[in-house]
Structure formats: structure tokens, C-alpha cells
Design goal:
- It comes from Thermoflexus hugenholtzii JAD2.
- One of its GO terms (cellular component) is cytosol.
- This is cAMP-binding domain of CRP or a regulatory subunit of cAMP-dependent protein kinases.
- It holds the Pfam family cNMP_binding.
- There is one protein chain.
- With about 240 residues, the chain is α+β, with helices and mostly antiparallel strands.
- It has two domains: about 140 residues, Jelly Rolls (Sandwich), CATH 2.60.120; about 80 residues, Orthogonal Bundle (Arc Repressor Mutant, subunit A).
- About 40% of the residues lie in helices and about 25% in strands.
- It has eight helices and twelve strands.
- The C terminus is likely disordered.
Length: about 240
Amino acid sequence: MGSLIEILQRVSLFAGLDVDAYHEIGHWTEVLSFPAERYIFHQGDEADAVWIVAEGRVRMLRQASPGKEVILELLGPGEVFGGATLLLSRNPATAQAATPVTVLRIPRAAYLELLERYPRVAVRLLQMLGQRLERAMSIRALILERVENRIAYVVLTLAERAGQPEAEGLRITIPLSREDIARMAGTTLETAIRILSRWTRAGWIRTERGGYIRIRDLDALRELAHSEGEAHGNG
């Protein structure tokens, strides 16, 4: 996992600070571990801290309707989450450990002091806000697409964030269940299974033990993600 200072240096929000600043942030930071599937905080909870993934993966969830949660993102090492990061008073989404995870917790008051003392961090916060707004707009537009396009978009996004090129294709290094993919695409488990099985038969992807996906025809998925037409399933 590396030392606390090494982890903080990999966080894009804190990039470029001097060594003393990292030690100061480290002094404020609490290191916590959660088993897989354990909730870190819930949507609507008070946003009293900034959280950073040190090791493992965190699943961000939002309740779309009563009894139905949609996966917004899967976060990996170095990524920041929690409503306090964006200066919100409440957490806009639920955070859940997708794998056994170690996270860093920085109290809100310490984070606000950090923004005042280091303008560079405040500038990066504005950049982060812009990126998340752009991503939210893309997701909103995606809702209007047919379900197969949405699943292709999800798989390509994961490949972009956590893809490892290998001889037999691009391997997504995040373990994913069919339910994870369905919830990220806003569709049913049955529809996700049907579409992924069709892609496997076509030779576009291969699913591997442990929930890993290997993309064998990246161009086919890209073309599908940007195509139009009637859905094979209505989600």
C-alpha cells in the first residue's frame, strides 16, 4: 500500500504540494479499513470528512427509486470521495466497500483549513467539480440510450479507468459482478446477463474467474457505445 505520505502524493487533489504540506495533512488523517460490502457512509449522512481510497475499491451508490440503487462510480487508490470534498453539507451518495478496502479520513474542518492555506488545492477542487459535472451530464444523456449502448459505455469507462493491456486483450483490473454492471447501466440483472453472454459468444469479451472482464474487440464496443437503434432489451 505504501506509506501515508506516498498515498497522499498520489492523490490528484493534493498534487504538487511540498513535503511539509503532506506531513501536515498526514497529521490530520485517520486510516480505516472496511471488509467487502460494508457501508462507509450513507446518502444523506452529514458530510463531516473527506475520504481517500488507499487500497481496494469503493462503490458509490445513489438511490434512484425506493428499493433501487444505481452504482455511480467504482473508485480506486488515490481517488477522493464524500460530500465534504465538494463542500456539501450532506453526502449525495452512499459509499460501500466493493472489496476489502483501506481508506483515509480527513475531518471537514482540517480540509477547509487546507483549502485556505493552499490555493493550489482550491484550484484543483474547481477542476474536479468541472469533471464531475461533465460526467454527470454524460450519465444523464446516457439514460436516453438503449440498454446495450449503456452497458457498452459502462464497460468502456471501466476499461479507461482500470484497463491493463495484455496479449489477449484489455483486462479490466476491477472485479465486477453481473449485478454491478447492471446497476451501473441502470438495467436489470437478467438483461445485463443476456447482453454480456451475447458479447462473449461474438468474441468481443471474455469473463474470467474472480469477476474480471477481458475486452477482446475494443472497436466493436466503441462502435456500439456510439451507435443508435432499437434496444435488444428495454432494461
